[in-house]
Amino acid sequence: MATNAVVLACANPVPEIWPDVARNAGAQIVATGRSDFPNQVNNSLVFPGLFRGVLDVRARTISNRMAIAAAEELVAAAREKGLSPDRLLPSMDDWTAAARVAAATGVAAVTEGLALNPLDRDELERRARDAIGQSRASVERLIEAGLIAAVPRPHTI
Predict the structure, then answer these.
(1) Burial class of 7 by CB neighbour count within 10 A (0 to 12, 13 to 18, 19+)
(2) Where in the chain is the domain with CATH 3.40.50.720?
(3) What is the pTM of this model?
């Protein structure tokens, strides 16, 4: 393996190469699709926010520009938290990233003329935060009532 390689081993549940093996072979950055290792790369980082933004502006389609806006917003959120070899993207439990992705996606749809309900970025992010916050509160009430089991937080190495 080349020195300082970047390895994206995203097959689930068993990655193509285990992170410790990749690092021992010279990888500088390793990402997997698993939540029990740093750098989880998973489409669920994008889709909740992307779909929220699409629905809020009632976009007629999802364009490449909208998908790129979602990706760029994930990068911006990650940079604000501080990038490192073990932190390339927001974590799965950073629900504020989904609200930001929703806003960026909706704005891109409006800019491209694809939105039937054009909204500005602040309104899109507020709506996404409200919707996500209500969903999280509902889940917490169900857990407290014993109606659903809490999912243990994954450990990281």
Answers:
(1) buried
(2) 42-144
(3) 0.85
